Amino acid sequence: MALKTNVSVFYRGILALALLPHIAIAAPAANVKTSIDRAETPDNVKEKLLIPYLFSSDSMGLNIGLGGMLSGYFQDQMTIGGTVFGGDVSKGIGLGVWNFKLPKTERFFLSTYGFLGYYPDQRAYAGAGREFVPKGTPLPGSNDSTNMQFLEADGSSNWFDIKLEYALPIGATKDKGLVEYKLKNGLLVSEPSGGESWNPLESGATVVVLRQFNRYQSFEFVDEELDGTIHAVELGILYDNTDFSVNPSMGSSQYLSVSHDAAWLDSDHEWTFMNLDMSKYFSFGESDYASQRILALNFWTGYSPSWEVEYDSLGGRQVTDNAPYNEGATLGGFYRMRGFDQNRFHDKAAIYTSAEYRYTLKYNPIEDINWLKFLRLDWFQVVGFVEAGRVAPEYTASTLLSDLKVDYGLSLRALTAGLVIRFDIAHSDEATNGWVMVDHPF
After folding, report:
1. Which of 73, 163, 192, 329 is the most exposed place for a label (fewest CB within 10 A)?
2. In angstroms, rounded to a whole number, what is the distance separating the alpha carbons of residues 321 and 325?
3. What does the alpha-carbon distance between residue 174 and residue 193 come to, in Å, rounded to a whole number?
C-alpha cells in the first residue's frame, strides 16, 4: 500500500551539525552566491572543517558520526560537504556540491546533494491519504488534530536534489553573478549588497532557481510496509535586498515559487504547491555588550490548489492530490513553529509569522583558545523568538487568522567558517524541543 505523503524526521536538523549546508527543507531553494574574505585570514576565501559529532534520542539511541566541508577551494563560492553516522539501528550517509559555477558562464550555478538513511521509529503525522478518516475525527496533521495521530515505524528516508540557479544581471550582481563580502570579527566591513532602497534594478541580488527534487520514505510495520515517492520540480525567484545575505542586519528578502509533481516515474500522485516567503530586518546598532542588535521579521504562506477531500457514504474523509506535507503547507520543526514536532501540521493552506531579536555579542569566549582556531568562530549571538501560525482546509482570512498555534524560545548561534550554526530551544503547549541546524531560519 502506498503512503501518499513524504516524511522528513528531526535527524536532518542534527545532521546540520555535520555541516551539510543549505538543506532545502523549508527555506527558499534559491540563495545569493557569495564569497567571504575574513580580515583574520586576509585574501583567503578557502575554509575547511572536519568535525566528529554524536547525538542521542529516545528513538534513535546513541549515534556517532563525522562531518566536514571544503569551501572556496575550487571556486570562491563553491562548497563540498559530506557526513556519515551510525548507531545500533540507524545509519546514514550524505554528500553534496553547492554553487558550482558552470564552465564558460558567469551567472549559472549548479548544486546537487542527497542523503541515504535508515532510522528507527520514524514518525509521520499523516495517514489521511491512504484510508478514510471517520466522520468527527480530525484529519491527521490538521490544525484540530492531536499529536497522537501519527504513523511510526522503522524505515528508510532517502532524498536527492539538483538545482540550477541564475543570478540576474541587475543590482548587486549587475557585473558578475557573485557577491563578495569582506568581514572583520564576523561583521560586514565592505559595501553592503543591498538594504538601503528597494529597487531590484539597482540594489540587492535577484536569483531564479529551477530545482528537481526526489524523496523516498518507507515504514516497516509488523504486518505491512508502506512507502511513498515523489519526483517534483520547483520554479522560484528570490530577491534578496539585505546588506549581508548570510547574516542580514537591514533590508528585506522575498521568495516566490511553484512546485509540481506530474506523477511521473513512480511518484504516487499529481500535486501542485505555491509558496511566498518574505523577511524584513531592522538594525538598532551596537551597544556596550553587543556589536549588533537586529529585529528580524518573517511572513510565510503556502497553498496547494490540487488538494482535494473525498467523502464516503458514512461521511469519512480521504485526502487526494495533496502536496507532501514536508513540501507543502506544513508547520512544525526546525524552520517554522519550532516548539512542535517536525512536520506536525499540514493541510491545503498555511500561514506563519515570526519575530526574532538577534543580539550579537562583542565577547567571544573562545577567541584566544588556540586549539579551537580551526573553527574560524567569529561571534556568538543570543536570540529570543516568538512564532505563530496555522494550517487550514481553505485559504480564507477568517479561517487562517483564527485559532493560531503559538510558541516561543531562545537560540544560541555562532558564525563559524562563514556559516551560521544555531541551537534553538522552543516551547509550545505540546512540547519543548531542541534543534541544531545550519543557517538562520530566515
Report:
1. 73
2. 12
3. 11
**Number of alpha carbons in the 13 Å side-chain half-sphere of residue 383:** 30
Round to whole Å and give the CA distance between 278 and 297. Answer: 8
> For residues 356, 180, 166 and 439, what is the CA-based torsion angle, rounded to 10 degrees?
-30
Phi and psi at 56, nearest 5°, equal: -145, 145
E strand or H helix at 398: helix 397-400
Nine cell digits for residue 321: 492530490
Q: Which three cell numbers stand for residue 30?
A: 534559491
C-alpha cell at 358: 538577534
189: CB partners within 8 A, 6+ apart? 39, 182, 183
Question: Is residue 244 exposed (0-12), middle (13-18) or buried (19+ Cβ within 10 Å)?
Answer: buried
The dihedral built from the CA positions of residue 12, 430, 304 and 220, taken in this order, carries a sign that is positive
Residue for cell digits 539585505? 242
**Contact yes or no for 390/403 (Cβ under 8 A):** yes
Residues 97, 163: Cα–Cα separation, whole Å: 11
Residue 21 has, within 13 A of its CA and on its CB side, a CA count of: 25
Concatenate the DSSP letters of all residues of 316-369 into one string: -EEEESPPPTTTSEEE-SSSS-TTS-TT-EEESEEEEEEEEEEEEES--TTTT-
Could you give the CA distance from residue 112 to residue 97 in angstroms, rounded to a whole number?
Answer: 5
What is the pTM (predicted TM-score) of this model? 0.90
pLDDT digits (tens, 9 = 90+) for 120-168: 988 889 887 778 999 989 999 999 999 999 988 999 999 999 999 999 9
350-363: b (≥16 Cβ within 10 Å) or e: bbbbbebebbbeee
Question: Which cell goes with 100?
Answer: 558550482
Parallel, antiparallel or unpaired: strands 349-361 and 377-392: antiparallel
DSSP notation for 40-71: TSTT---EEEEEEEEEEETTTEEEEEEEEEEE
What pLDDT, on a 0 to 100 scale, did the predictor assign at position 371?
84
Rg (CA), the chain: 21
Q: Which residues contact 197 (CB under 8 A, 6 or more apart)?
A: 203
Q: Which of 381, 377, 379 is nearest to 359 (CA)?
A: 381
Task: Give, as one character, the DSSP assignment of residue 24.
Answer: -
- DSSP conformational letter for 14: H
Tell me the CB-side half-sphere exposure of residue 138, using CA atoms within 13 A: 18
Under DSSP, the state recorded for 72 is S
pLDDT tier at 432, thresholds 50, 70, 90: very high
